[in-house]
Amino acid sequence: MPRDYFQRSEPIPYDPEAGPLDLAFRHYRPDEVVMGRRMEDHLRFAVCWWHNFVWEGGDPFGGHTFERPWFPADTMEMARHRADEAFEMFRLLGVPFYCFHDHDIRPEGETLAKSVARLDEMADYLGEKQDASGMRLLWGTANLFSNRRFMAGASTNPDPDVYAWCAATVKACLDATHRLGGANYVLWGGREGYETLLNTDLGRELDHMGAFLSKVVDYKHKIGFRGAILIEPKPQEPTKHQYDYDVATVHGFLRRFGLEDEVKVNIEQGHAILAGHSFEHEIALASALGIFGSIDMNRNDYQSGWDTDQFPNNVPEVALAYYEILRGGGFATGGTNFDAKLRRQSLDPGDLLWAHVGGMDVCARGLKAAAAMLEDGTLERLRAERYAKWEGSDLLERPLEAIAEEAVAKGIDPQPRSGRQEMLENIVNRFV
Fold first, then answer.
1. Of the candidates 130, 148, 74, 133, which has an alpha carbon nearest to the alpha carbon of residue 105?
2. What are the pLDDT digits (tens) for 336-358?
3. For Mg(2+) 2, which residues are the binding ones (predicted)?
């Protein structure tokens, strides 16, 4: 049973007229219809387990600042306590999904077998809570980065014993995700990369990583898991160079190992920025390549060059992201997971609720703006006009020499046309 950490019984209401200090949704209304679909079904919100219920508020220069009644969750009793409070928060927020790592929901055992047994036990407990609440699992994943055994990578580790440990762990996590009806399974390669080429066989590590992913896909089909397998692109942190740097890198990796039809991507806003891209660029590219799956919604601090995992508060940025999602047909198995965490000074239980309510409202505003832009049609009409001369052209089917011969014979003299970027940006600003 919940331990009443949040000291609140009623779910957070939708009330656009609420006062500035009243905890309420001003924009997110699950049943509101946007482009013929319920807002809840468009956004598919999920709350992550790790930042909200595991992270203690530490940073590189300071220890923990948060004091939760389930810390330290180093026993199964405390793990169940944490799950009780987590599902109570899900109920108060009215979110339909959640996400977890194995390390989040169970304490690590003295042996690998003990850790797997504890994961199975907690999966049963979460299954009971899902049945009672109607909550669903958006995705599960394995923590293959925190423990010191992973300091040189997981599937790319030079020690085959670590590779075997990771295989057993991912199998157990995929089994648990399957039993809980997860819509996806994520492989987050937090340490799949290198710190120096002086001790790295890069080609071997890429081959090992590809073989590992192929085995995961094979096992997915063997057990009948119908969800999507997702890779989360992640640049720079914590290694100097990571093999899943961005969407383009991941797609090339998938093509090399023949997995482009089996694996999609889970794109995080903060990771896109660290890779030197915009969030909407990564989403649009994934859609164009046919590998878009899901998103982690957060933001980075504009003055910091690292992944600060803050809750979203910039409606124009979010609107452009959902514009690309809607253009691509929306989510299939994916959704909007808040991979975001409180600031270290936000100590109160209510801060967890305020953070998510604000993020959900920002996403709702962004979604509605994106839908309005699509329904208005101006941007898409202008985009089509820019490429209109390609309609009916057979250039892509003809050999190079034939194209060259005709161009010379016709004496073509192409004249540039304005891309009208400033006008397009002004059109967007009318909606956000």
1. 74
2. 999 999 999 999 999 999 999 99
3. 268, 271, 307, 309
Is 296 annotated as a binding-site member? yes
What are 154-178's pLDDT values in tens digits? 999 999 999 999 999 999 999 999 9
The verdict on pTM exceeding 0.90 is: yes
Domain spans of the chain?
A: 33-376, 381-431
pLDDT of residue 73: 86
CATH architecture group of domain 33-376: Alpha-Beta Barrel (3.20)
Q: Is 282 annotated as a binding residue?
A: no
Query: Quick one: how far is CA 83 from the chain centroid?
Result: 22
Q: Is 268 annotated as a binding residue?
A: yes
CA–CA dist 182, 195 (Å, integer):
34
Q: Indicate the pairing of strand 228-231 with strand 263-268.
A: parallel
Tracing tokens 């009971």 back to the chain, one arrives at 128
In sequence order, what are the residues at sequence separation of 6 or more whose Cβ sits closer than 8 angstroms to the Cβ of residue 11?
91, 92, 93, 94
Return the active site residues.
101, 104
> Dihedral sign, CA of 345, 349, 354, 355?
positive
- For residue 244, say whether it is annotated as part of any ligand binding site: no
Mean pLDDT of 316-335: 98
Highest-pLDDT range among 160-174, 189-203, 290-304: 160-174
